[in-house]
Amino acid sequence: MKKSRVLIMAAMLAAAVSCSSDRDQILKVYNWSDYIDESVLPEFEEWYEARTGESIKVVYQTFDVNETMLSKIEKGHEDYDVVCPSDYIIERMLNNGLLQPLDFASIPDEINYISLNKSPYIQGMFRDINPAIDANDYSVAYMWGTTGIIYNPAEVTAEEAGTWDIIRNPKFAGRILIKDAPRDVYGPVLIYLKQDELKSGKVTLQELMHDSSDESIAAVEAYLKQVKDGVLGWEADFGKEQMTKGRGVVSLNWSGDAVWAIEEAAEVGVDLAYVVPEEGSTVWFDGWVIPKYAKNIKAATYFIDFMCRPDIAIRNMEETGYVSANGAMEVLESQIDDECEPIDLSYFFGPEADSVCVDPVLYPDQAVIDRCALEHDWGQDTEKLLAMWSRVKGDNATGFTYVIIGLVVVAAAVLVIRKATSKNRRHKSSKRR
Question: Residue 167: which pLDDT band, with cuts at 50, 70 and 90?
């Protein structure tokens, strides 16, 4: 009931804003749930006024599905000033003329944090989105990560976890969890199935990420139908908790969820690990953009810049459990852990970061990144992907499935209480795709 009242009040505030004659004093931000340290919002208001002499009020709203956000802008022409889509939606919005170019030259050099803290890797990844239009001119990365395997080393060897084919391994049948995220499953499986072509040079990893051919879809579908009987659950958010409880021993998941699962499992004496399989994988990111129908371009530009200030980026990382795309050395220094083995992060932070002690789940070593590629939007072929996914999953809910769901609900309630007092980084919900 309390949550309902909050939502009603937020809707009323949003309606009032849309009717306000002082729209230049309002900044409408639309972001994923649990994806920011909300204490930075009033700080931005103070910072903006101090820098520009103009007052601003942030109206902050959240979404849980990329397509919900996109529909509001594309079909409803909503006047959000800043939104935070995932990579493939940024690509779609860019291709469909739904983004405004970013004018960071309008921000004084001394506070132009996006210009000061660019990661060379992120810049290059953004250029790959659309060779004809540089996405760096329209978007700024916020968080990023990889897709890989969370596993329990007590029951799964590193060698077994080091291949995508582990999700088909009968040894772990009934204890395998897979993200209910067709895009993030299709890419890794296709990479696994196309190993001969990749090794022979007939196709590059990046070219493979554009492959939505009927032949490839059929191959992935056939493989996943072999996997299906061993899957404990196709999950949106309960998989990492099942791993911490020992009910699952293998989970195809995102690195952000891996961080959460590893830390939570350690608290109850369970050891978990994360690996990007040897065949290769995908990288993902979410980024800030200014949509076509935005009304307060100036404040939106300053807001995106403020999110790139190193101390703000660090706070958002620690609050959400995800990894900032910010390339500032202060961000790297905040993540140094002398218990970790040195890895090469020069691709992300520059040559001085060629041997740094950082958790490789957060920041993959150069050798891992060399075998990863960015996913792409399928455009009109997206329906083919969704139809394949529906055929694979089918309606295979069993009594055991509902027992698991019930256990998850109870476990989640207990977890919420325990996490309220936890000093570890938090990750409330899975937010991608």
Answer: very high
Annotated domain spans of the chain: 17-137+286-334, 145-280+371-419
Top CATH class, 145-280+371-419? alpha beta
Give start and end residues of each alpha helix (H) in 20-119. 40-52, 66-74, 87-95, 113-116
DSSP lists the bridge partners of residue 336 as 358
| Residues 6 or more apart whose Cβ sits within 8 Å of residue 312 | 37, 40, 43, 306
Res. 224 pLDDT band, cuts 50 70 90:
very high
Nearest-CA neighbor of 255 among 192, 324, 323, 164?
Answer: 323
Which position has the token pair 């953004």? 126
- pLDDT (mean) for 126-148: 95
Q: Are 228 and 388 in contact (CB under 8 A)?
A: no
pLDDT tens-place string over residues 31-55: 999 999 999 999 999 999 999 999 9
Q: Which pLDDT score is estimated for 4? A: 42
Report residue 161 as tokens. Answer: 């976890």
Mean pLDDT of all residues in 94-119: 96
Residues contacting 149, CB < 8 A, separation 6+: 161, 164, 166, 250, 251, 252, 253, 274, 275, 276, 277
Per-residue tokens: 30: 């639309």
Q: What is the pTM of this model?
A: 0.87
Class in CATH terms, 17-137+286-334: alpha beta
Distance CA(273)–CA(189), nearest Å, equals 20
pLDDT tier at 429, thresholds 50, 70, 90? very low
Q: Say which DSSP state 287 is in.
A: E
Q: Are strands 372-374 and 281-289 parallel, antiparallel or unpaired?
A: parallel
